[in-house]
Amino acid sequence: MRVLVTGNQGRIGRYVQAQLEAENHIVVGFDRAAGDDIRQPAALRAAAQGCDAIIHMAAMLADPKDDPNDVMHVNLQGTWHVLTTAEALDIRRVVCFSSVNALGIFIGESLPDYLPINEEHPCRPGRPYALSKFLGEEMCRLFTRRTNITTICLRPPWVCFPENYARVRQRWAEKPESEWSPIWEYGAFCDVRDVAAAAVLGLTCADPGHARLLLCADDVMTSGRTSRELAAQIHPDVAWRGREEYESEPFRALVDNSQAKAVLGWQPRYSWQAQE
Asked: Which residues of 59-87 are buried (b: 16+ CB within 10 A; e: fewer)?
């Protein structure tokens, strides 16, 4: 399969490209590091000629120093250009990188309505990056409805690189409260290698039409407290919907990844507990 990958030279993009190449796909890169601009539809369309699918990662991230107008322009206009390119060239599958921030309950934006978090949780983003990701998902949904082109939006939390595990533990040892202060991200993370695997599976899984999928490791990042203990300590007033599985799996993730497993045939390989 010949795959256009926007943002292929980014930190996550390199892993996605490597995973694609390991599975004998041909990667066509489109990255600002190579002088490409997602805001230029003609250049994007030229790059996508002959491609069978698109993985779209190019975006401005949640840096508070960035101009909100630029964030909205790059993220929304860029996604629009990817989708219209797919339609013009009859590319029938697009995997878009969204974010858990589309929910509006991460990076301290607001409390969740309940824990564990799943795809049914209401979305209420307000910050530019989070709003751009939510609106990008809505764009994909309506695009699929009109064109029947498959769009799969992946919602990873903090993406953990191999070198991060030891660094986080060292920071917690030096400053224990940094595990939850100034904000707590529900102990959610996903190893970059698992994120890359999910993106590639999105190219060949059974057609879901449009899907929004939470990605997460199977367990929480924790200094030792169980998932239930962390929820009770940090968000005591948030409704708890966990069932008996949190008794048998005390470190089970507080972000439900079951839909990603079901739709993609994905299974995260890397866990926090295994890095001990």
From this structure: bbebeeeeeeeebbebbbebbbbbbebbe
C-alpha distance across the termini of the chain, in Å: 38
CB 48 within 8 A of CB 4: yes
Distance from C-alpha of 15 to C-alpha of 17, rounded to nearest angstrom? 5
Neighbouring residues of 95: CB distance < 8 A, sequence distance ≥ 6:
53, 54, 55, 56, 151, 152, 154, 199, 202, 203
The C-alpha atoms of residue 259 and residue 122 are separated, in whole angstroms, by: 16
Look-up: residue for tokens 């991200």? 185
DSSP 132-170: HHHHHHHHHHHHHHHH--EEEEEE--EEEPTTHHHHHHH
What does the pLDDT read at residue 276? 56
Quickly count: other Cβ atoms within 10 Å of residue 46's Cβ: 11
* Residue ranges, the chain, pLDDT below 50: none
Superfamily of domain 2-160+188-218+254-271: NAD(P)-binding Rossmann-like Domain (3.40.50.720)
Find out whether 212 and 137 touch, Cβ atoms under 8 Å: yes
252 beta partners: 219
